[in-house]
TrEMBL record:
<dbReference type="InterPro" id="IPR028154">
    <property type="entry name" value="AMP-dep_Lig_C"/>
</dbReference>
<comment type="function">
    <text>Catalyzes the activation of phenylacetic acid (PA) to phenylacetyl-CoA (PA-CoA).</text>
</comment>
<dbReference type="GO" id="GO:0047475">
    <property type="term" value="F:phenylacetate-CoA ligase activity"/>
</dbReference>
<protein>
    <recommendedName>
        <fullName>Phenylacetate-coenzyme A ligase</fullName>
        <ecNumber>6.2.1.30</ecNumber>
    </recommendedName>
</protein>
<keyword id="KW-0436">Ligase</keyword>
<dbReference type="InterPro" id="IPR042099">
    <property type="entry name" value="ANL_N_sf"/>
</dbReference>
<dbReference type="InterPro" id="IPR000873">
    <property type="entry name" value="AMP-dep_synth/lig_dom"/>
</dbReference>
<feature type="domain" description="AMP-dependent ligase C-terminal">
    <location>
        <begin position="345"/>
        <end position="438"/>
    </location>
</feature>
<dbReference type="Pfam" id="PF14535">
    <property type="entry name" value="AMP-binding_C_2"/>
</dbReference>
<keyword id="KW-0547">Nucleotide-binding</keyword>
<dbReference type="InterPro" id="IPR011880">
    <property type="entry name" value="PA_CoA_ligase"/>
</dbReference>
<comment type="similarity">
    <text>Belongs to the phenylacetyl-CoA ligase family.</text>
</comment>
<dbReference type="Pfam" id="PF00501">
    <property type="entry name" value="AMP-binding"/>
</dbReference>
<feature type="region of interest" description="Disordered">
    <location>
        <begin position="1"/>
        <end position="20"/>
    </location>
</feature>
<dbReference type="InterPro" id="IPR045851">
    <property type="entry name" value="AMP-bd_C_sf"/>
</dbReference>
<comment type="pathway">
    <text>Aromatic compound metabolism; phenylacetate degradation.</text>
</comment>
<dbReference type="InterPro" id="IPR051414">
    <property type="entry name" value="Adenylate-forming_Reductase"/>
</dbReference>
Amino acid sequence: MTTTAHDKVELPNPLDPEETMSRDELEALQLERLQHIVAYAYERVPMYKKKYDEVGVHPSDLKELDDLRLFPFTEKEDLRQNYPFGMFAVPMHEVTRIHASSGTTGLPTVVGYTEQDIEDWAKLFARSMRLSGVKPGMKVHNAYGYGLFTGGLGAHYGATKLGCTVIPMSGGQTEKQIQLINDFEPDVIMCTPTYLLTIADAMQKKGLDPKDTSLQIAVLGAEPWTEEMRHELETTMDIKACDIYGLSEIMGPGVAGEDVERQDGSHIWEDHFRPEIIDPFDPTKVLGDGEPGELVFTTLTKQALPIIRYRTHDLTRLLPGTARPAHRRMGRITGRSDDMIILRGVNIFPTQIEEIALKIPGLSPHFQLEITRPDRMDQLAVKIERRDDCNVEDGEKAGKELQRLIKIHVGSSCAIHVVEPGSLARSSGKLRRIYDLRDNK
Ligand code: DLL
């Protein structure tokens, strides 16, 4: 049989040695790296020296992994106060890349990378993709936004490192996305879960069945999403959808990635990041594995921007490793503590509404939450689209059911407005779910 240039061949795809280490070996490596990075940050970044001197803690106090809790946290505010480059630990000529995340308020958060940092990032993104079933030689449609956002270039370098063919589409231009998916026949798509929903929705509007594409795997992240959303995307598109997690301050996407077979949460690459879970209301309390709280990260190898004990404000818990036994997994992010709606004393996250709504036939995953304060009392309204095949009357019934289930499971009364299919804003990246319309919040 003759092979043509386009035939697929099985390419080598070995694991990194750190992926198969024992937990003891990994912890020994973590301690060695942690001792180095804390001393490195103290010597090179004035903010760390000041903070540690103020509370009387010194890098030499770090004798075992648990001693990390002696050191103060780093907050987004620290990066802002040192805007733009005040927390860089290397001279600018060693910084080969700068990214920034657009803060919703105020200054962007600026992050920098040395050549080695970029190399490590690509390796960890490639490792995450491999765990999610992506193989060298596959075609990857990259619809994360390129530019200052870490999604596009992070995914691009990772896919290149794994040995894939990258289609650098970036976010937006949904019509063009559909055309290229049809014509280039990629195996993998990478974007936010809500943007994949937008693409699938737009395909259906054009009379195309999203199940008929060449896509087999989606590597999705950058925003919270639920098992119900995974089910929705997998059944609508006939694909496997895996999670990828990361944040700019710590590296970008690829801090953690998910196994395609088990789909049981993302493995944190603990040879490069040391995670902790703290009580967000009493941050001095470091919680045990399995307990829900706020995720805190320390970078173990970053050269340009070492970050010690960064408060992510992401709420989750740590679980034992499975596909990569030494590396712990994180549970699904239920939300960010700063994304939490507190309605008359009850905490509400958009993921809770997503989880409930997607279980009700007739309701779509397209919804937004509006908070108003009509008579000095906060009110929540859920605007949600009914599905195309659900009529107005059944949509109203489904809305009543949503209201009832939110009351039972979340504990809050809210108004429900079931709206026409296609009437709410669609995502082209990270979707905004919450609209706070109160005058003085
Ligand atoms: O969103 C990096 C990224 C790009 C991750 C592409 C995955 C894929 P930032 O813009 O700095 O970086 O936003 C980081 O997004 O603290 C979480 O709140 C949220 N986030 C990221 N990934 C996930 C995920 C990128 N898989 C913030 N599940 C984080 C839930 C996520 N939330």
